[in-house]
Hints:
Elements: H1 2-44, H2 49-57, E1 69-73, H3 75-78, E2 94-97, H4 103-108, H5 110-113, E3 121-125, H6 130-133, H7 136-152, E4 156-160, H8 178-194, E5 198-200, H9 202-206, E6 207-208, E7 211-212, H10 225-244
Parallel strand pairs: 1-2, 1-3, 3-4, 4-5
Antiparallel strand pairs: 6-7
Amino acid sequence: MRVLGIRLLAGSMVAACCLMAQTAEAQRVEALEQKLAAQRKLLVDWGGLIRYGSENAEIRPPKPNEKRVIFFGDQVTERWGQGSGKFFPGKGYLNRGIGGQTTAQMLVRFHQDVVALKPAVVVIEGGMNDLLVATEGVMADNFLSMMDIARANGIRVVLASVTPVCDCYTKQTGLRPQGKIISLNGWIKDFAAASSAVFLNYYSALADGRNFKKELTDDGLLPNDAAYGVMAPLAEKAIAEALSKK
């Protein structure tokens, strides 16, 4: 009887191990499939034109006295309003952020997602992902091109700083070194001044030294709801300043 019990226990252990192995393999395959799907999407629509294409088609031109504002950027912009906090409730501002995009991809969709919607002001937030792939010269050219297009269409520009990072939860500073973020923000500030745009300094409000304040991020990379609560009045002030420019 004892031998039978041992055999049953051993069989159960083997079955459990096999089930765990199958589950792990299924998860690995699912992760690979998701990665492949994301890569296929990039190949088909590298610039992200499909994302807001249908929604844009349904938006009517602004009313005569309406000062439309578009927030245009990467994951920092895209995630704004996806948590418990609303995206500028009652303001009618439009969010045109796409996670993971570089300034090169943003430039591709600038006409569709900004110019065609006829805003009075565009808040451009980008550069975080360029730190992974782009040279400073290429990124500068992309910012300059977006600025030129906006000016040619009578759109006032607010240029936002890149937000800080920290290793509070996971390692973030390896891919996005804090020194490079500080240098990039210095360039954005100088470029804004030279081009008569408004500089929106998210970084100083969110950082403690070089680090993202731990209470304002849940992963060390992106703002949380509390951070967006800090950022909102700064954005409102910058928008008002841009609208006051002649």
